[in-house]
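User: Sequence in, structure out. Go.
Assistant: Echoing your sequence, followed by the structure tokens.
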Amino acid sequence: MLVESASASTTVSSPLLTLIPPAFVVLAVALLMPLLPRRLGHGLGVLATGGVAVWSYLVPAGTYLPVTFLGFDAVLFNVDAFSRLMGIIFGLIACAAVLYSYSSAASNRQTAYALGYVGTSLGAVFAGDWLTLIFFWELMAVTSTLLVWDYGGEAVRAGFRYAIYHALGGSLFMAAIVWQYVEVGSFLFSAAEGIVPGIPAALAAVGIGVNVGFVGLHAWLPDTYPRPHIAASVFLSVYTTKTGVYGMARAFPDGHLLIAYMGAAMAMVGVVYALLQNDMRRLLAYHIQSQVGYMVAGVGIGTALATAGAFAHVFNHILYKALLFMTAGVVVGRVDEENLKYLGNLRGALPLTALAFTIAALSISGFPGFNGFVSKGMITAAAHHEHLDGVYYILLAAGVGTFMSFIKFGYYAFFRDADRSWPSVERAANGQVVAMLGVAGLCVLFGLFPDLLFGILPGDAHDAHPFTTSHIGEGLVLALLGVVGFAVLKKPLSKIGGAVPDVDSLLNPAAFYTTRTLVRGVTDLFAAVDRVVAGGSYAVAGAVSNPYPALRRTASAFSRDGADDIGPGSLRATIATSILLVVLVLAAALVGLLG
């Protein structure tokens, strides 16, 4: 039985390309890695993930694999413009991240967990139906949690919290999908345009909102990503949130105004909190929320240009965000310090790392000539065309904050002439340099030649004109405002120490006391019921074993006469009386059953 593809094309490609879904190849390597020598295992990881990127680019649109899953019609993998782009960038960045992991002394076990995370993410984005998507979505939460836990220490607590958030989000998303099946009678994407409106759409938005970091549901992100091994952070920065954007686009193909404004809020809240951070990876984690906000805004706007911009930003963001975590990881690995206040003057000790950071910082900030400039401009232009002035100006303000954040990061980590010098700092390992400069080169390539990306985007990029005078002027003005803003706020920002309170400062105590109250209430209720039942049971047992005191009390309640005569031997009955009583009891039971 053939299942209609979500793509406009229905061409089935050659068996060579459809025999084994790419996710399964990566998962197989993940299972083998702990059994292999370290170099061989990581080499296979590079080949498998790089192969996924090439496969995703070459496989014809419309390729799909219909299966029966749990008794339902499903599409194990489906290739359209959305899944193709996700497969290309997921495979490409995983290839660089595995090389970086090998050069960062990551163990085979850690990289195996990371490849499991990559494989389950690929399974989700290549799914052609909601059932397969949620199956891999939940596996993705498991594999990413294992990747966090593998490092031990503080990462274990953060991993538990991460797991709880994603379990709740996944449950809401699953409820939306079940409701979807009840409404349309199929799990296939082709059965309906997105998630049906109403309660299912609301459940899906909140459930997916956990993964993308909706405001109020984002606290897991800055809490988790700075905790594990530096190479694990590179993987974590890519897959969960971007798979969430993909799911949001599938669920809301025509967009939604509330989602657009939530995306704008994410962009602004994330950048404000990032600016207040001194921990490098925590700052970068808040910028994940901020940059994903642009993508969510694009999905919410819902026009062809906005959709193309959202997924262009998915592609570009994965490149520069992974690069930023790589550069931060080199700093942490070489000087064993994450706090920007205690860094400085590293440009001489780590020149290539400083160069890679500069390219990534200009890319994420949207400076002309770098890839973030192109995709950010597509989203803001779409908001402007749709007269969504609130979204448009919030995104521009977030752009200024992004410039300020990375001026701060670069200044304190690499370019400040600090009193502390680093005479014995080792340069980045060769594999780290290759991975960083390779990704940095792509940031520049897609910034200067955006048509290379436009050809694989969903939506319509024909209205994107990144190098107009007005757009270039806008990028330069935002950069200038960022420089001025940092100069004005540099001294107040330098006085901020420690973690800045976020929504978790309210949610954590609320969750703790609510849970404690609930547990104590249930425990006290159980104890009260237990006392009543136990007391009643003892009373019944006592009355059965020695009924005479109870009978005397009952008799004395009606008359004092004869109550004292009740005792052993005084309750005798004839055989006929006993039979009559038994017959009456059985008759009453029979009437009750028949009634």
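User: And one key feature?
Assistant: The CA atoms of residues 84 and 535 lie 68 Å apart.
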